[in-house]
Design a protein that fits this description.
With 633 residues, the protein is of the alpha/beta class. It contains 30 helices and 17 strands. Helix 10 links the parallel strand 6 and strand 7. Helix 12 runs antiparallel to helix 25 and helix 14 packs parallel to helix 20.
Length: 633
């Protein structure tokens, strides 16, 4: 139920009661049993000696206490029934549990807005909770979460009454001297907060919390990872402040993936003793923003470097002698045309070369896979190398101005490491002593051969040399991944000298204004997630493996629902030309020419998104894509 619907129901009532846990406040770790696990995991911080079985022992003790005493129990009474612990351990655990309850509780922002509305309207507010914590302890939690101005707090264990049997509701109306019909109650428990309230003659509003709405139940991970994933998603559910679909995606999907990467990156940089870190344009701009947000006190040089395949291409071919060597260096595919080849070498605007090509009968749209074009490049190689020599001097100066010397970390979204190869080649050709370590979200199999001395690549989600299990899955959504890291400037075309310093020459920004705004919302929400995690001691202490960090993004990218498809359906991917992320032909065109389905699927930057909007119903999209890919020819 949304805010406006709740407010509409509250308007006619002067007396309002709220449940507390999972209504006004959330535990950022999820259910109470996760608190017991956290106490066990973090006992060393408190110089405690707690058995590994404590989470189970604590739950069993509560069951025994309730069964034996036949009443609402207190925290101390629960620990009276815990077996195998001495009095010192029990007291220590009671205090730790109190500390953790306060530490992990955060305000439910949606309900806090409702609560504040009631305060502003002068309504009498009562708080009612079936809980083993004392009133004093719950007051600490409420104060920490920003709740004040209520008339009274009723806790089941202090009155030996509960909502679950209606007796606590009776106590509230009797003590306040009001009729049950004058009170409206809001809570999440369908029995205690809704049915028992109504059976007591009280109007009730049920809050249906969907704790699994972000979870990826198709994702396989270890038991330890499953626990961290559960805690993370509980925190997301508790902390998310908006219903905007773009912000929700950024907070719940992009945020965790970037958090995992930043933690991994920071660890790797320290392990290798790297003091110079450069984030490559354009995807590196958002990665740099995220890293500096989460690690503001870094102790190494950080720079954002404007580079592109095009801006480095000319300088990287200084020592090359043939068309085939250039083509290999630039990783050009067979479908590349002459125009694209010239563009990569900054020759596309030189009329001299255009005229020579025309004189030999070569058109700009022709494939580069022709003997006549290969001979043309081989005949022009000296001119090309002269341009490369001139360009290399400016590029090397730019490297030095941005601390690209000695041991350097290159950070980018990744895939083949083409720009790192270009940097390594330029430095090698110009006898510059440098050690390059590239840190990426993914490193493809085709790049596992290390062409250059002292140039290394590492992948967070997948790594060709370590674990490429996720490579095909990630490659099926490359466009979706890249869009989320899009920068607010055009590609780097080259460099020029201004006031004795090198400045980049940028192309026009390609993103449509609406898409730019939507990506800003996604990225801002991801940053908000990082800040929220950083401010929570429990979440901040966790390690986020690639399986945990990627799971929510993988749920949207790999198993999209209709609402996920709607978010990105109009997005475009920018390379040399702009194409729709999931662009497709009409059903009629597919009937006339079924081969168009294969073509559109293989060109799509989000294969599963394309199949989702084509088929409309849930199917194993990735398996279907792999089947079509296998028989694409």
């Amino acid at each position: 139920m949304d805010y406006n619907s709740i407010i509409a129901k509250l308007e006619e009532y002067n007396y309002v009661s709220f449940d507390i846990f999972e209504t006004l406040v959330y535990r950022s770790v999820g259910c109470s049993k996760n608190i017991f696990k956290e106490i066990t995991e973090r006992q060393k911080e408190y110089s405690a000696c707690i058995p590994e079985t404590f989470p189970i022992d604590r739950r069993l003790a509560e069951q025994k206490a309730r069964n034996f005493l036949k009443k609402e129990v207190t925290l101390n009474q629960i620990y009276d029934f815990i077996e195998g612990y001495d009095d010192n351990q029990k007291n220590q655990l009671i205090n730790l549990e109190k500390v953790f309850e306060v530490d992990c509780c955060i305000a439910n922002k949606k309900m806090q807005k409702v609560y504040n509305y009631c305060k502003q309207k002068g309504k009498k507010i009562f708080l009612v909770s079936d809980m083993y914590l004392s009133k004093k302890q719950i007051e600490k939690i409420l104060y920490k979460c920003g709740y004040s101005g209520y008339c009274e707090l009723y806790v089941s264990c202090e009155h030996n009454a509960s909502k679950s049997n209606g007796s606590l509701f009776k106590l509230v109306v009797d003590e306040c001297n009001i009729k049950p019909s004058e009170l409206i109650h809001i809570g999440d428990n369908i029995k205690s907060d809704f049915f028992m309230a109504k059976m007591s003659g009280i109007k009730a509003i049920h809050l249906a919390n969907d704790y699994n709405r972000f979870s990826n139940n198709k994702w396989v991970m270890s038991s330890d990872d499953e626990y961290v994933y559960s805690v993370m998603n509980s925190f997301i559910e508790a902390s998310l402040k908006t219903k905007d679909s773009y912000a929700t995606f950024g907070y719940s999907c992009l945020g965790p993936m970037v958090l995992g990467f930043c933690k991994w990156l920071n660890k790797k940089i320290k392990e290798k003793g790297i003091k110079n870190v450069v984030f490559f344009a354009r995807e590196g701009k958002f990665i740099k923003r995220a890293f500096e947000t989460y690690y503001p006190d870094y102790d190494f040089n950080i720079n954002y470097v404007y580079v592109s395949r095009k801006s480095l291409a000319v300088a990287s071919i200084l020592r090359l002698n043939t068309f085939k060597e250039i083509r290999k260096m630039l990783s050009l595919r067979s479908r590349e045309n002459v125009k694209g080849f010239l563009y990569n070498l900054n020759m596309d605007s030189d009329e001299k070369y255009i005229d020579k090509l025309k004189s030999k009968g070569i058109n700009l749209e022709d494939s580069i896979d022709t003997e006549i074009f290969e001979n043309f490049i081989n005949d022009t190689i000296e001119d090309i190398r002269a341009k490369a020599r001139e360009n290399a001097e400016i590029v090397i100066q730019y490297f030095k101005e941005n601390h690209m010397y000695e041991k350097v970390a290159i950070v980018d979204i990744g895939w083949s490491g083409t720009m790192q190869n270009a940097v390594a080649k330029i430095c090698q050709d110009n006898e510059i002593d440098i050690e390059l370590h590239g840190f990426y979200f993914g490193v493809r199999r085709q790049s596992k051969k290390n062409r250059y001395v002292n140039s290394y690549k590492y992948g967070f989600l997948y790594d060709a040399l370590l674990d490429d299990r996720l490579e095909d899955f990630c490659r099926s959504m490359n466009g979706l991944l890249e869009i989320c890291f899009a920068a607010d400037h055009g590609t780097t075309l080259g460099y020029r000298i201004s006031d004795k310093k090198v400045v980049p020459i940028l192309g026009p920004e390609e993103m449509p204004p609406l898409m730019k705004k939507q990506i800003e919302i996604i990225q801002d929400a991801a940053i908000e997630f990082l800040l929220d995690v950083k401010g929570n001691s429990i979440l901040n202490s966790k390690e986020y493996s690639r399986d945990v960090a990627f799971a929510n993004f993988a749920r949207v990218g790999g198993y999209p629902k209709k609402k996920d498809f709607k978010i990105f359906k109009d997005f475009i991917v920018n390379n040399v030309i702009s194409t729709g992320l999931i662009e497709r032909h009409s059903y009629l065109e597919y009937v006339v020419s079924p081969k168009l389905i294969k073509r559109d699927l293989m060109l799509s930057g989000w294969k599963m998104g394309y199949l989702r909007q084509l088929i409309k119903i849930p199917v194993p999209y990735f398996k279907l894509f792999k089947f079509i890919q296998k028989y694409k020819n």
